[in-house]
Amino acid sequence: MRGKEVESLWEEVREVSLGNSVDRLHSRPTPIQFLRDFVSQNKPCIISNAISHWPGLSLWPAPSYLSTALSSSLVSLHLTPDGYADALVPHPLHPSLCFVSAHVQPTPFPQALNLICQPPNHLVAYLQQQNDCFRTEYRELESDCDGHIPWASEALGCLPEAVNLWIGNHLSQTSFHKDHYENLYAVVSGEKHFLLLPPTDVHRMYIREYPAARYSYSEESGEFRLELEEPVRYVPWSSVNPYPATGNEEQERSKFPLYFNGPKPFEVTVKAGEVLYLPSMWFHHVRQRPGDGGYTIAVNYWYDMQFDIKYAYFNFLQSLPYQSTDDPTIPESECEDSGPYASPKHLNSRFYSDESETNNVEEVNKDHGNV
């Protein structure tokens, strides 16, 4: 497919449905308003004053409170050398890229929090196990917030499939990805900075297949080792880095003209006390800024998406071979969704066996990305 038809779609979606910015609501919507104005239109929004009644909003920014409440808890700590996990990094053996996952180790919560608040030079720690971890590893905090978002649950007709807790510092960020979930993302401390692109922009993401790898960390040496998975497994992932390193800007722009020369992504900052509705299948890149406690905390609720005509439409759009008008010599042939990521029966999946990394039930709910 040549570019004009697809490229005009990117603009028309913004003109007809999305506008130029993400809507902000100053109070909780009614279920019918949320369903009509946002879920049915696959349109994000930010809701203020939606979690002002949570005790955690005032309690969790204090490290002493969390360390006391979770003093006996063993939690899944994700470790990387640079804050990039579920991301593309140089291949350890060849001049190419691979998709790498973090080293995960069970750690007493007070020790994990200390590594986040006072990061050593050689590693970045992040609490982000995406397997309904809030209701398993952090059960002691359940009375400090809601078990679900009532108006969202009524609008969506179900309770959340998973509730996850995220605690990290400014060094961790998430590469572009999408999820097959309706996501209600509540920030409790600090800020989250999102870049958002609608599903219709899929051809701008340069999705390619990369060999899967994983970090292995030695506490004795303090060193990381990057190990390719065996047998070899390939992960479809977005190749775009929206924040290229200084000096590499022109090179990145020339490699990914559809992203850098197309419509600007929606940029939103979600502050403590606010909730972002992130619709299913929207691409998002996330960075964060810590609050006064030295960390950012968020709770997100994953609700099952409807596999309806929108799902069929976006799958069809993604499957179209596409050749950019910016560079007619390089066809943009996107990877089709394959494996667990594509099938409704594998609902708990993101880019491959979901933002998931193994075939066991616990990992099936895991979200690829340090959001």
Automatic annotation (TrEMBL):
TM spans (from-to): none
Tree of life domain: Eukaryota
InterPro entries in the cross-refs: Cupin_8 (IPR041667), JmjC_dom (IPR003347), RmlC-like_jellyroll (IPR014710)
Gene3D superfamilies: Jelly Rolls
Residue span(s) of domain JmjC: 125-318
Pfam families from the UniProt entry: Cupin_8
Positions of region (Disordered): 325-371
Cross-referenced SUPFAM superfamilies: Clavaminate synthase-like (SSF51197)
Family the UniProt entry places it in: Belongs to the JARID1 histone demethylase family.
Family matches, as PANTHER family: BIFUNCTIONAL PEPTIDASE AND (3S)-LYSYL HYDROXYLASE JMJD7, HYPOXIA-INDUCIBLE FACTOR 1 ALPHA INHIBITOR-RELATED
Name of the protein in its database record: JmjC domain-containing protein 7 isoform X1
The species this protein was found in: Durio zibethinus (Durian)
